[in-house]
Amino acid sequence: MGESTVRGSGPGFGELLRLIRVHHWPKNLLVLIPLVTAQLASETTQLSRALTAFVAFSLVASATYVVNDVLDRDADRAHPEKRRRPIAAGSISSRTGGLIAVGLLTVGFALSALLPGGFALSLLGYLALSLLYSLALKRLLLIDVVTLAALFVVRVIAGAEAIEVSVSFWLFAFSLFFFSSLALGKRCSELHNLVAAEEPGSHGRAYRVTDLPILQSLGVAAGVISVLVVALYIDDPATAELYSRPDVLWLAGPLLLYWIGRVWLKTGRGEMSEDPLIFSVRDPASWAVALLAVAVVLAAG
To answer: CA 176 to CA 152: how far, in whole Å?
Structure first.
């Protein structure tokens, strides 16, 4: 059934939610990280700004997912999982998807007008990089991974711009290595699925299944370096001035190391979904680690 077929009832609400990837919105909670690290979560004005930034970023990110699905509809139809996406499956037409993307962008940038100008610029940068990724960068070896990591880091930068604070060296360095590890995990998970399907390479990507060992090594290394950054941050004399009991923060190191190790063990066994962050949202152990990490920060005072 082609896209030109007229559907009487139009796409259902569930299909629309799948199209805009609402289940990916937890990724955009990263815009709240500067609010927490700057210890401003108790200030109503700053909290309101951060939440507005979260909604605006989520809408714009959803628009980029829709555009990506429109551009990739033919390749997605050849993918065992992605062929179920609404546009690839034909339940929503490319034209309707385009109109939805325009609407999401309009509302997202309208909300950004309520925030400091730096946030809108960050959001525009995210949009440009996302579109460039969809059009070309995702097909380039390792550049796609760097771009994915950069898109996560931009979320953190946008969150800082929304509340007009600077991103510290420590937060930037941690984000760079941590999200590089997750981006590599995403690619490794995709390749493990190809191994299971006995396919030599990925659809529309530059990777082969023989690349798995080096990609896994790079991903684990990046994850461990992010733990090292946390350790160096805790040991920084300036950190001691921010907390009444800074030594308690050392408990965060083993928690992070455990979580990264678990993610990569799951990935190596082929048990990871194709997006480690989405896996984490659904994973009880990840929630336990997150709650313990919050408890550690609160205990550090």
So the answer is: 9
Secondary structure letter of residue 28 according to DSSP: G
What does the alpha-carbon distance between residue 249 and residue 230 come to, in Å, rounded to a whole number?
9
Q: What whole-number distance in Å separates Cα of residue 235 and Cα of residue 183?
A: 28
- The answer to whether 100 touches 20, Cβ cutoff 8 Å, is yes
CB atoms within 10 A of CB 162: 31
Options 3.30.1490.20, 3.40.50.300, 3.10.50.30, 1.10.357.140; which CATH number does 11-167 get? 1.10.357.140
Q: What is the SS3 assignment for 243?
A: coil
The whole-angstrom separation of Cα 259 and Cα 245 is 24
For the segment 82-96, the average pLDDT, to the nearest whole number, is: 78
Confidence at 8, pLDDT banded by 50, 70, 90 = very low
Pull the structure tokens for residue 184. Answer: 């590599």
The proportion of the chain whose per-residue pLDDT surpasses 90, expressed as a percent, equals 56
The reported pLDDT for the residue numbered 1 is 40
Q: What does the pLDDT look like over 131-170, one tens digit per residue?
A: 999 888 988 999 999 999 999 999 999 999 999 999 889 9
Block residue for tokens 């990916």: 24
Domain ranges (residues) in the chain: 11-167, 168-301
> Which of 101, 91, 100, 99 has its CA nearest to residue 5?
91
What three-state secondary structure class fits 208?
A: strand
Q: How far apart are CA 220 and CA 75, in angstroms?
A: 30
Question: What's the mean pLDDT in 182-205?
Answer: 78
